Automatic annotation (TrEMBL):
Keywords: 4Fe-4S, Iron, Iron-sulfur, Metal-binding, Oxidoreductase, S-adenosyl-L-methionine. Belongs to the organic radical-activating enzymes family. Residues 14-293 form the Radical SAM core domain. This is Glycyl-radical enzyme activating protein family protein. It comes from Peptacetobacter hiranonis (strain DSM 13275 / JCM 10541 / KCTC 15199 / TO-931) (Clostridium hiranonis). Its cofactor is [4Fe-4S] cluster. It catalyses: glycyl-[protein] + reduced [flavodoxin] + S-adenosyl-L-methionine = glycin-2-yl radical-[protein] + semiquinone [flavodoxin] + 5'-deoxyadenosine + L-methionine + H(+).
């Protein structure tokens, strides 16, 4: 299956060093409860519906050739099983209350877009970041061709990954990636299953594989009260023990936020992370200090 792109973000300063273009691919093997990009989880195109914009005129219901739309309590609902993603309803909505996410690009088209900001990459020490969703579960030959194309043009390539992808994919991308932005969420396996839907076995195996093969690893840790942050820093200490023997070049500590919460409504999904909390600035500094005291270099709060 050809990868779908949800977003091509220019001038990003949170996805690796310098100014970068970030390509967000659609589809992820994990289902993190706190995910702030729920539209990136499914591998297929999806209709998003913005209830605030909808005037409940019912035009889309009338026009839908597949009878996928129904009226409900002053707005409209979507029967996803019936929707064929034909986009007819988008054309008829004067309020632009609907959009379809997930676009197909060729490698050539993406390279052309990436190359446009080459001057910014060169001046800032930036490049391109391939992200998601999860980039490493996409068609790996497509991703390798894209990364190779960037490297051939002298553009730095960062792979932003949750680690849950076949190890052979990491082996294939290794020659073309300058750096891996590798997420570690939880070391405790039971908690990992509970909050992401999957064991962390494969993730830890891939982390070791990259480390043993000399990859530049930048660890990224989302810190979430109610998940991996507590008074005793229990999970943080487990991460330290896990990461200490490895050659980690940089660590980003990412405080939880819920700015993607509204997207769940657009997808007609329920956000289950309402009880999670953002760690205080004091707590974030305390965790940063723990990493630094354990000899980790380039520890930063934020992306
Ligand atoms: S056409 Fe647009 S404004 Fe009218 S009901 Fe459908 S989504 Fe709402
Ligand atoms: S995309 Fe097409 S099938 Fe889906 S709801 Fe809109 S008009 Fe109906």
């Amino acid at each position: 299956m050809k990868p779908l792109v949800i977003n091509f973000q220019k001038c990003s300063i949170h996805d690796g060093p310098g100014i970068r273009s970030t390509v967000f691919f659609k589809g992820c093997p994990l289902e993190c409860v706190w995910c702030h990009n729920p539209e990136s989880q499914s591998y297929t195109k999806e209709v998003l519906y913005n209830r605030e914009r909808c005037g409940a005129c019912g035009k889309c219901k009338k026009i839908c050739p597949h009878d996928a739309i129904y009226m409900k309590e002053g707005c409209v609902g979507l029967n996803k099983d019936k929707c064929e993603l034909c986009s007819t309803c988008l054309d008829y909505c004067v309020n632009n209350a609907r959009e379809i996410v997930g676009d197909e690009y060729t490698v050539k088209e993406l390279l052309k877009l990436i190359e446009k900001d080459r001057m910014f990459y060169e001046e800032s020490g930036g490049g391109v970041t391939l992200s998601g969703g999860e980039v490493m579960v996409q068609d790996i030959d497509f991703i390798c061709e894209l990364a190779r194309g960037c490297r051939n043009k002298g553009i730095d390539v960062a792979i932003d990954t949750c680690g849950y992808a076949p190890t052979e994919h990491y082996e294939k991308i290794l020659p073309y990636a300058n750096r891996f932005l590798f997420d570690i969420k939880l070391v405790d396996e039971d908690k990992h299953k509970k909050f992401t839907g999957k064991s962390n076995d494969l993730i830890l195996k891939n982390l070791k594989f990259l480390n043993d093969n000399g990859a530049y690893i930048n660890i990224r840790i989302p810190l979430i009260g109610g998940v991996n942050v507590d008074d005793n820093n229990e999970e943080v200490m487990k991460m330290i023990e896990l990461l200490k023997p490895l050659n980690i070049k940089a660590v980003n500590l990412l405080p939880y936020h819920d700015i993607g919460k509204h997207k769940y409504t657009k997808l007609d999904k329920e956000y289950e992370g309402n009880e999670f909390t953002k760690p205080s600035d004091e707590k974030m500094n305390e965790i940063k200090m723990i990493f630094e005291n354990n000899n980790f270099q380039n520890v930063k709060i934020g992306g």
